[in-house]
Amino acid sequence: MQSSFDKTPLLFKQVCVIGLGLIGASLAQAIKDNGLSERLVAVDRHVPSVDEAIKHGLLDAGSTRLTDVVAGSDLLIIAVPVQAVQAVFTDIKAAMDNGQLATDCIITDVCSTKVNIIEAAKSVFAALPTGFVPAHPIAGAENSGYHARRANLFVNHSVIICELATTSSSAIAKLQQLWEAVGATVMPMAADHHDAILAHTSHLPHLLAFNLVEQLASHDDNLDMFRYAAGGFRDFTRIAASDPKMWHDIFFANERAIISALDEYGVYLQTMRQLIIDKDSTALMGLLGRAQAARRHFGHMLASTPYTDTSAMSASYNITPSNTVSGTITIPGDKSISHRSIMLGSLATGVTNVTGFLEGEDALATLQAFRDMGVSIEGPDKGRLTIHGVGMNGLKPSKTPLYMGNSGTSMRLLAGILAAQSFDSVLTGDTSLNKRPMERVAAPLRDMGAVIQSTGHDGTAPLSITGRDTVGQPLQGVEYDMPVASAQVKSCLLLAGLWANGTTTVIQPEVSRDHTERMLSAFGYPVTVDGNRVSIEGGGTLTGGDIAVPADISSAAFFMVAAAISQGSELTLTQVGINPTRTGIIDILKLMNADISLSNETHVGGEPVADITIRSSNLQGIDIPEYLVPLAIDEFPVLFIAASCAQGRTVLTGAKELRVKESDRIAVMADGLQTLGIDCTVTEDGLIIEGKGIEGKGSNADSNEVNNSQPVFGGGHITSHHDHRIAMSFAVASLRASKPITIEGVETVNTSFPGFAELANQVGMSIEVHDSRA
Ligand code: S3P
């Protein structure tokens, strides 16, 4: 077999595997396939397994007795049932005493319990050998025995290593090398902690699976029970097909931790039983919803990946050029308002019903965080949510760090809320979010008396927040002069101000989106706005109600530009939010001569909305007024596409903030534009783009004729840098491209615009979503 890790050097002279069950034989096979040892020998009580392994060429020698084969080994791997380990230690000691083994020989095991293994070693050896390293690969399968072995069993699995005070560091390092060479990730852990964790995550589920099968099997009508047992039973009890002897041993070996896990389980079971008896629908829904979301959440959190659809990781768009779009479409809900609906709905008294909620990963991160803090939230179901508010002092500490995924808004706004809570919290995010600046909220929160640390490398997340119970006093209102026009910073401080003594005032250098202010007012909390000064008094309450989230103008922007740059196009986008603090995109496109009109203007849940119709336009390059920058802060990537199609130069200044969004949007867009043949120059705080105009050349076409627009972009490969808006912007470019465009890393589109490609195809674009992991 070809080694998959063939750069690994030979690590051992002779490895001796004691026990050729699933784990022992799989590890032996992995060692063999990866060429990690000069010789491989094994001991097993079952003669046919040993004979077969020799016949297969897996082993150089094998026996039923250790002393026959062990001489010269520099690694012993004990892979026998837990309760047989002590006898193996006795054999190993005898081999050492006979001079068959060097004293620094590494001795490890693969058993599922650790404290009792160490105890067993202590009872055999007068002093624990320096080469003794207890370990446990968290890998396995319900199949057991030599025949079930798989060399790749450990790939992408974790191996826990217990570093004892007596163990030499070279033995630990060497064993780590071995596990990494067979594809595993090594984690150090204290033995008692290991046993407690495994009791909950492995031993208890196995015990319950065996128990449920036993329960069904002992019914009189068991045949019928099994005949009609559906997927749930099959899935839940898969692990009850595991080796009974092994589990028998483990249950006794880890008795104390398992009994405590079982007792805790009993309490939870009783709670659920009582909720059913009491017909407590709200609490039961809360519990089930929390559990369902947590189940999904843990997977993402451990992998540091986005929330929904992990299968879409490493996805790309393959786009065939098209040249026109038309139709009437509805864009998904506003991301900023969706976040805030969860936050204020959770803190309110009473029930809040939300419609039009954006089921994108960013807003789902906020949703999960509040569930983690004990809020009962039903949904989302087609954009509908029911939030059972817990009141201003009803949040509970989360048992785990709050995971914000890719969402800067979740992290920064939550930092404000959490800085005021009685309990401690930790906020973390995915790799991209953990690189974004957090001191912009942490520093002013500290001015209010918050105890908050940005524990990342450079003022970045994870954020660690100390609760007010520990600090001993509430936050203090301050007047804060914001250096950047950031709605996230403003909102963070206003939210913290809800609990602060006195008045919290934020002064913004330019107007930024005001959804927090509007929604606070809608929940009955007074906010004073005086020009660029926004103030709030601490100590009030919020009252739950209904929130209708309008369509997101930031998502609509992709379709506005799509229609404006392509020929013979006309798109109507229904009931889009046109809050004046968000309409910079409309103002800028109008300055560029775009044909945009608004109709059916009305108000939905305190926010103005309208249908937006946009047609093919003879766009002109402009100098973008700086006051419009905060009002179109998220729309610049797609505006750069518009500028490339405009006649003449477009100059953006005063937009340094773009460098600290989900990616450095100035650098990343410039790279992509240049790949597609656009002449552009990066400046410190903006970008200069030489537009190619209707004729695709940059000539001085002065007619308003837009039905003969020529390509302005070539084809090519674009990297989104895992930034949703970069990916969608370059997809729009395909409407004026001469050749296909491939965009790598589009899975993050789900953060703000699930269904983007489908909607784009519906209006006439041609995007094929390719998932390299499918
Ligand atoms: C947002 C504010 C903006 C924006 C982000 C959402 C919000 O960030 O870029 O997508 O919901 O408050 P800044 O306030 O940091 O500019």
TrEMBL record:
Role played: Catalyzes the transfer of the enolpyruvyl moiety of phosphoenolpyruvate (PEP) to the 5-hydroxyl of shikimate-3-phosphate (S3P) to produce enolpyruvyl shikimate-3-phosphate and inorganic phosphate.
Protein name as annotated: 3-phosphoshikimate 1-carboxyvinyltransferase
Gene that encodes the chain: aroA
One Gene Ontology cellular component annotation held by this UniProt entry: cytoplasm
Any Gene Ontology biological process: chorismate biosynthetic process
Superkingdom of origin: Bacteria
Prephenate/arogenate dehydrogenase domain boundaries: 13-306
Keyword tags: Amino-acid biosynthesis, Aromatic amino acid biosynthesis, Cytoplasm, NAD, Oxidoreductase, Transferase, Tyrosine biosynthesis
Signal peptide: none
Record-annotated membrane-spanning stretches: none
Gene3D superfamilies named among the record's database cross-references: 6-phosphogluconate dehydrogenase C-terminal like domain, Enolpyruvate transferase domain, NAD(P)-binding Rossmann-like Domain
EC id: 2.5.1.19
GO MF annotation list: 3-phosphoshikimate 1-carboxyvinyltransferase activity; NAD+ binding; prephenate dehydrogenase (NAD+) activity; prephenate dehydrogenase (NADP+) activity
Positions that bind 3-phosphoshikimate: 335-336, 340, 486, 488, 634, 661
Catalytic activity: 3-phosphoshikimate + phosphoenolpyruvate = 5-O-(1-carboxyvinyl)-3-phosphoshikimate + phosphate; prephenate + NAD(+) = 3-(4-hydroxyphenyl)pyruvate + CO2 + NADH
Subunit structure as annotated in this protein's UniProt entry: Monomer.
Binding site for phosphoenolpyruvate: 335, 408, 436, 488, 665, 725
Matches recorded under InterPro entries: 6-PGluconate_DH-like_C_sf, Enolpyruvate_Tfrase_dom, Enolpyruvate_Tfrase_sf, EPSP_synthase, EPSP_synthase_CS, NAD(P)-bd_dom_sf, PDH_C, PDH_N
UniProt similarity note: Belongs to the prephenate/arogenate dehydrogenase family.
Database matches in Pfam families: EPSP_synthase, PDH_C, PDH_N
Subcellular locations according to the entry: Cytoplasm
